[in-house]
Amino acid sequence: MDFFSLQKILEENTDFIITCHVNPDADAIGSELAVYDILTQIKKNARIINYSKTPYNLEFLDSNKVIEKYDPGKHDEVIKNSGVIILLDLNQLSRTVKMENAIRNSPAIKVCIDHHTEPENFSEYMIVDNQYSSTGEIIYDFLDKTEIAVLNHNIATQLYAAIMTDTGSFRFERTTPELHRKVANLLEQGVSPYEIYDQIYAQFNLSRNKLLGHALASLELSKSGKIAYMTITQDMLKKTGAFESDVDGFVNYCLEIKGVEIGMLFFELKDGVKVSFRSKLDVPVNKLAEKFKGGGHFNASGTRLFNVKLNEIQPQIVESAEELLRNNKN
Ligand code: 5GP
Ligand code: MN
Asked: Which region holds residue 122: left if phi is over 0, alpha if psi is between -120 and 50, else beta?
């Protein structure tokens, strides 16, 4: 679908629901709030309903507290009766976890705006392009091309947060001169890079930093020395009082070791294991995640495995990562 078809859908409908993936990041939340602002500007009814609670370091983006946490009793009917459901920063309905069925069975038009690989074809109204740095950048282009609404300070803040975080503070591959030009236009709206960075990355709870200590102490290297991985257990969460969302970003420390090409974080869930994969340069960790029922991007991917034991699955995944590196050299 192109931007002008999306414009038409927004203009021709009245009731919208906006949602994103489980454990939302700033790209997901910022994109949702930007789309919400656009819809409000054009006098539409919109609600943001998410499966997960907004992480506390992103709450400043939702200053009017419009994001609702999914409650089946309250929201399934709303999802059923909405004209359009806009899914952001995900391209597989399972990424909405327990909202999946209600969304799948709703007769609403499903719009998907995303930048991940391997999309599930659940709608004819999809804008999915993995050449984009972030979902926020797609929203930026949509606004810029269609001029459906005004790029105000709020939208600029949301999109800046989305783009800054998904580009690793403007260092990942899709950080191009063109992207910086778009970001310059966001800064023209009076957005403060210092403030947004500080809110997202420099106002954590003490417990999060204590948990980081445990995570760093758990670091191990694989036989080849090219894979570093850390492990976080429920016990560590209990000891420190940190939350699951506090773990966001920890996996990057695995890549800050000389010679390491793949970093992994194993996170013990109550009923399974969540794994985050990160890689340098030409190592496609999306392939690794796909092998274990997950997905994501070339250099950043993940999966959630249920009914598996950490100590059983960990060696299997480390071995698969070694195999990926061996095959990637050929
Ligand atoms: P993270 O490691 O930060 O949780 O996730 C990194 C990226 O991996 C996300 O942006 C998302 O694209 C992808 N990802 C993480 N978990 C899953 C999952 O369970 N399924 C799929 N398909 N992708 C995931
Ligand atoms: Mn994203």
From this structure: alpha
Mutate to test the pocket of ligand 1, among 58, 285, 301, 304 (most ligand atoms within 8 A of CB): 301
135 within 8 A of 162, measured Cβ to Cβ: yes
Q: State the CATH number of the domain containing residue 274.
A: 3.10.310.30
Over range 245-269, report the average pLDDT.
96
Residue whose CA is at the smallest distance from ligand 1 atom 24: 302
pLDDT at residue 330 greater than cutoff 70: no
Q: Are residues 8 and 143 in the same domain?
A: yes
Write down the mean pLDDT value for the chain.
96
For a substitution probing ligand 1, which of 20, 172, 303 has the most ligand atoms within 8 Å of its CB? 303
The boundaries of the domain holding residue 33 are: 3-201
Phi, psi (rounded to 5 degrees) for 296: 140, -140
Percent of the chain residues past pLDDT 90, beyond the cut? 96
Ligand 1 atom with the shortest distance to the CA of 303: 19
